[in-house]
Design goal:
The structure is a single chain. It is built from six helices and 27 strands. Helices cover about 15% and strands about 45% of the residues. The strands form six sheets. The protein has a six-stranded mixed beta barrel. Strands 2-1-4-3 form a four-stranded mixed sheet, covered by helices on one side. It has a four-stranded mixed sheet with strand order 6-5-8-7, with helices on one face. The longest helix has about 35 residues. About 5% of the residues have low confidence. A hairpin with a 4-residue loop joins strand 24 and strand 25. By secondary structure, the protein is an alpha+beta fold.
């Protein structure tokens, strides 16, 4: 074998060795990359990013994925048993806090309203009100309001209660805020325009009015009148007294439900009283003589020729010339009837014996038991009158009145 051939063989052998070495290095490199790389899933809000990396540092993986972070953003990493990794990015967001007439913004990733207020440096007072509630979870662009409050005590409607009301409010606005109603006549121990202060005590006295309607009996008056046709020492009720009635309206002033004042604002008589009239006898007892016609069936008549004066039921004085005492009856008649003298009978028409009491005689008639027939005129007659079984027969408006009267002893005053 010549030298040329040897050189060629040696050259080919070196090339083979080089290729083999390169192949081995490539295999080792591929094996190393496969053994030490991992798949990482990145959750960035609604975005889902997947990368394969040999980096183990979380921030370097984020840089490899070309994701920009803000200083307040938070990263959460989860290494799974299958050599995969999940990274969750919590982006910081702003919330606005309004307090003491200032608005400030803070950045937060999570937490509650209370956490954001702590970050802002706002110090809450014991009675302050926060909206939304302190335990509310934060959300992007949330507006949080801190309202400074003070505590007041209000006594009204028979109870006392504490309320938290806005600092700087006047008394009227504070009561409205506490939903405590005020009425026109209420009495308040504070100036409504005054500013409330912590610990202030407010008292509200409720003042109201109501009308009470009552009735009151009006007693009747008693009037006594002399009656010369009644015997001395006797009385007779001419008009029975009737009590009246009045309606009284009383205005009551109440303070916290208790009556503190009453006032009569109306007194109206609804039923007028009727005065009772009592006739008092003034007539001296007179001697009478007996007049008889001699017939056994005739009524005995007692007559007095003593003249005098009597009072009628209204108190008017009447002059009489004679008194006749005897039996009296009553009668009535149908419509269209005519008396013996040609008149239409009516109350005051009396049937008589014209031989004893002439037609046309004016009389005033009472009974000994107190009944007053009153004024009468002799206009009629009848068999009983002519036979003497009755002195007078008095006309009544109805049969029932006649039955009620029956037969009574009458006194007939013959008027002048």
């Amino acid at each position: 074998m010549n030298d040329v051939a040897k050189k060629e063989i040696f050259k080919q052998l070196r090339r083979l060795i080089a290729l083999t070495t390169m192949g081995c290095l490539l295999f080792v490199s591929i094996f190393t990359v496969g053994a030490f790389s991992k798949r990482v899933t990145i959750h960035d809000g609604e975005n889902l990013i997947s990368v394969v990396t040999m980096n183990t540092d979380t921030h370097k993986i984020i840089e490899q994925a070309n994701i920009n972070l803000e200083p307040e953003d938070l990263l959460f990493r989860i290494d799974n048993p299958d050599n995969s990794t999940e990274i969750v990015i919590k982006r910081a967001f702003e919330v606005n806090i309004s307090a003491d007439e200032n608005v400030s913004s803070v950045k937060a990733v999570m937490g509650t309203v209370a956490d954001s207020i702590a970050l802002s440096g706002v110090v809450l007072g014991e009675n302050d009100s926060v909206s939304p509630d302190l335990h509310t979870n934060l959300e992007p662009n949330m507006n949080i309001t801190v309202e400074r409050r003070c505590k007041i005590s209000v006594t009204a409607d028979e109870r006392s209660k504490e309320y938290s009301v806005p600092v700087g409010a006047n008394v009227l606005d504070a009561l409205k805020f506490a939903e405590i109603p005020l009425y026109e006549n209420d009495i308040i121990n504070r100036d409504l325009s005054g500013i409330v202060a912590d610990g202030m005590e407010i008292t509200i006295d409720r003042v109201g009015y109501r009308n009470k309607i009552t009735t009151k009996t009006i007693p009747y008056q008693t009037i006594r009148k002399n009656a010369s046709y009644l015997d001395e020492g006797t009385t007779q009720v001419s008009v029975k007294g009737v009590s009246g009635e009045s309606e009284i309206v009383i205005k009551e002033t109440l303070k916290n439900g208790e009556i503190i004042e009453t006032e009569e604002i109306k007194n109206k008589v609804t039923v007028q009283p009727v005065s009772e009239v009592i006739l008092v006898g003034t007539r001296k007892k007179e001697q009478t003589i007996q007049v008889s016609t001699g017939e056994s069936r005739q009524t005995k008549l007692l007559s007095s020729n003593t003249s005098g004066n009597i009072a009628d039921t209204s108190g008017s004085s009447l002059s009489y010339s004679k008194i006749l005492t005897g039996s009296g009856t009553a009668y009535t008649a149908e419509a269209g009837a005519i008396t013996s003298t040609g008149t239409a009978p009516k109350r005051g028409t009396v049937a008589v014996n014209p031989n004893i009491i002439p037609y046309g005689t004016k009389m005033f008639i009472t009974t000994t038991d107190g009944y007053v027939y009153g004024y009468a005129t002799a206009e009629d007659t009848g068999g009983a009158l002519r036979q003497g079984t009755a002195l007078v027969d008095l006309y009544m408006d109805s049969t029932q009145e006649c039955l009620n009267f029956g037969r009574r002893t009458v006194k007939v005053y013959i008027l002048n």
